[in-house]
Write a structure and sequence with these properties.
Layout lengths: L1 H10 L1 E3 L3 E3 L1 H5 L4 H15 L6 E5 L4 H11 L3 E4 L11 E7 L6 E7 L8 E9 L3 H12 L3 E11 L4 H7 L4 E10 L6 E3 L4
Parallel strand pairs: 3-4, 3-7, 7-8, 8-9
Antiparallel strand pairs: 1-2, 5-6, 9-10
The structure holds guanosine-5'-monophosphate.
């Protein structure tokens, strides 16, 4: 997606060897017009796949997931990373090692919000080592629902998550795949679109 790649090149900042900071349009300040275009693109790619629900994980997956849900006309379920009195006790749970925080948390989805008739599309902002997606996949499988695929805004192709998830037989559609990036000279190279 050219618009996304332009944004990454103009506004993205490489931190060390592993992290891309895109807080000006995706993770901290959110550009709604741009997010709408992202949602439309996910909807175009997964139209006709029978998606009944989108599942994302708080918090940065919510914006692209909601716009995708708007255009696919399906509800969006957001997995919670923290326990709260707002959350019913009856939840599906999975441990997820957070890439950005470096610590494990239990992600939870209320059992009322997914069932075995569902066809689930995952949406997330980044795919790095695939921990978040693996946790969500295990929850959806426990619920007996069907996994349609995953729509990722930015995949870091030099990290292992994309291969690990595709090796599970899950379709992963990423709007931009970064082949390499360097903090030293600020370069970001994308993989060719297939
Ligand atoms: P994974 O679970 O695939 O290792 O990491 C994905 C999660 O970590 C995403 O939900 C995203 O929030 C966060 N993440 C991974 N890599 C990056 C990155 O380079 N930049 C930012 N801002 N978040 C990232």
């Amino acid at each position: 997606m050219d618009l996304l790649k332009e944004k990454i090149l103009c506004e993205g900042r490489v931190i060390g060897t592993e992290v891309l900071k895109v807080d000006s349009f995706l993770n901290h300040r959110i550009d709604p017009q741009f997010m709408q275009a992202i949602g439309k693109e996910f909807a175009r790619r997964f139209a006709g796949c029978g998606v009944t629900k989108i599942v994302t994980i708080e918090s940065s997956g919510i914006a692209p997931a909601v716009f995708a849900g708007l255009f696919l006309d399906v509800p969006v379920v957001c997995a919670k990373k923290t326990e709260s009195r707002n959350l019913d006790a009856d939840t599906y749970q999975a441990p997820v090692l957070s890439f950005t925080r470096g610590k494990e948390s239990i992600v939870r989805i209320n059992k009322r919000f997914i069932d075995s008739s569902d066809h689930i599309l995952f949406i997330d902002d980044f795919l790095a080592h695939g921990q978040a997606l693996q946790g969500l996949i295990s929850i959806v499988k426990e619920a007996g629902a069907t996994v349609v695929g995953a729509g990722i805004v930015i995949e870091k192709g030099f990290q292992a998550g994309g291969k690990a998830i595709r090796d599970l037989g899950v379709r992963v559609d990423s709007l931009a795949i970064i082949k390499s990036m360097s903090e030293k000279d600020g370069t970001i190279i994308f993989e060719e679109e297939v």
